[in-house]
Amino acid sequence: MASEEELFASVDALLEEEPQLPPPAERARLREAAGITQARLAVALKTSTQTVKNYENGRSEPKSPRLEAYQRLLKGWAAKYPAHTSSAAAAAPVVAPQPEERKAFTGSAAPERAKVAAPVKVLAALAAPEHPAHSVTSRRSAAKKAAGPAVDPRFPHGPLAVLDGDGCAYGVDGIVLDCPATNVPELVEWTLKESGLGAARLNRYGKDSDPLIVLTAAAAVKLGLPERLEGREQRRSLRLPEDHPVVKQVAKAKWQLTQRGFGPWARIYRKAQGRERQCVQLAVLSWDALDERSWPGVSEMEPVDIARVLGVYAQRVITPRGSTAVSGLELMTALRPPTKAVRDEETGNWVSGYNAGSLGAEPMDPAPPEATPEHPVVVNAGWKGGFLNEEAYQWVRDVDTLSDEECTLPFALGLDLNTAFLAAAARLVVGLSAPDHFHAPKFNPKIPGSWLADLSRIELDPRLPSPFTPDGSRPTGPAWYQTHTLAYAQELGHDVHPVEAYLRRETGAYLDPWHDRLKNAYVDTLADLGVTKDLTDAEFLAAMEQHKEKDPALAAVLAAVKATVKGGVGKLRERPQGKHYKEGETWPALSRPTWRPDIRAAVISKARVNMHRKLSNTAKMTGLYPLAVLSDCVVYPSPGESPLDFLPYAASGKPQPGAFRLGPTPGLAKLEGVQSMLWAVGLMEQGYNPARHIKGGDAVLDEGE
What we know:
Shape: globular
Number of strands: 21
Distance between the termini: 76 Å
Strand content: 5-15%
Strand order of the largest sheet: 3-2-1-4-7-6-5
Mean pLDDT: 83
Largest sheet: 7 strands, mixed
Low-confidence stretches: 85-148, 673-681, 691-705
Helix content: 25-40%
């Protein structure tokens, strides 16, 4: 029998050991029972969300002093939420089934859907949160999903999945698949042959969308990728070096990478065999694939919530293929494919032919005034005739034009037009063929193109920005204008006599399906957030004040839709990138049929004209003139805190047509949150100082990614 000294020594040894934690599954259960998200716990423990996930998945253990703090927290939760109580059982976390509980997805896509997806959907339904709006990082929000189209039997598991380090691939509608891949080639093979991921074409002549796999930081490391890409260049240009082991693995497995290499958005493919495409799109979250400006807060969400956000976007817009700007441009092509199958009359065979209404399969040189100064068309021809300057407004009113009454008004309100550039794309006729040069043409407002004319003699109210220049100043002489700008001068009652023009004979409403799809995505997402068309103006303003907090995941989708509009239009004139570029050289964007600066100019010209028309009508109805205009936002002095205090309404209470109106439809206005007003700062320097400034508007159109 052991002596007392030996027993005391053994007990002392146990006391000196590190604190013991409950099993990983119990840690997650306790946290969920307490209603605490992994992100919030990470803040309390002064660590990252991924580290907390590792604790709860058993992939790592905390070290002292975090170990003692974590143990104390878990003990406190265990006392409140013992495992045997019914309340604890009801609060069990909705996580992917463990390997022994989850059947591996190894068969064909369609038959396995019931085996893999059904259990996950049941778990998600049982654990639907009482207040989902306050916890987008919880996996419980998987139960929330937007209604989508009928499932395509070829792609039973949706367009995409978010792969985590434990092999769980989270898809749309709460689906969780088991991905056994341990390297990138295996992941590509699994995605194409077993995952059941992808999306049907958006046009009968188009192509099915390639499946998208989004990699968390843990998944990237598991597949042999670095957790972060570091380098001296801008992040969007970073990629793995060609001698990286993963790049070599891809090449050894007979797969190819696009010219952009293995970066945040890597496309891995083999040449199509027949009509079957073999291509997988990867997005690496920890390499900043989801830009915070376009996808606010998404990269910090849980995988199941990221899948929900991207899934709604994919169903309503397109499966992401890069930045929102890239996706906006890809959507144009997906809705208006450049070619279609036509029968060769001589041979009787089906061949690829031009698809009417599209931009065709080959790039097209712009007219010199439509190009950028570094474009080969300009440099090689020595063009000195000037360029189109169709850009969004950036105008601040001269303080000398302010009346005493305006200066005494205590508020400055910012009205932000909902997706103004999208509204401008509706029924917009653009050129589809190459430009032809004309001298002294008669102006025709129905022909898209670029016109050289002198509008400097036109007198306009100095309290409004000129509709002919982006900075709102009066033109100083002849300049190149897009058709809509000259048409508006004619609408205002002025004669228009162009000196020369570059016009296109073949025209069409190329952007119409693009506009319709994005408009529906925007309006439907706003409706899901409680902002509907049937609201009164007061109700609309109240709903807009709260919509981002109601469901941050859908709010992120809304932000991405807006970024898709602006980025897609901006991409139509993407400039060269990189410090080694020399003027006169071509750059990659010029190889795209969608490099069309004339279409970009048409959208912006129409949007600016629409803005000026509303400014003018509002002034006629109310006597109020703007303080500043930037892009799609206009700032007014106001006697009260709400636009209801100055917007024009009829005696019946209905908004006056033609002026600014409130509402969720693209082109109508909303009031943005209270912040420091960018343009008011300039006015304050001139002596204007309202008591409060209310911010609206977004960044100007971005021509890059």
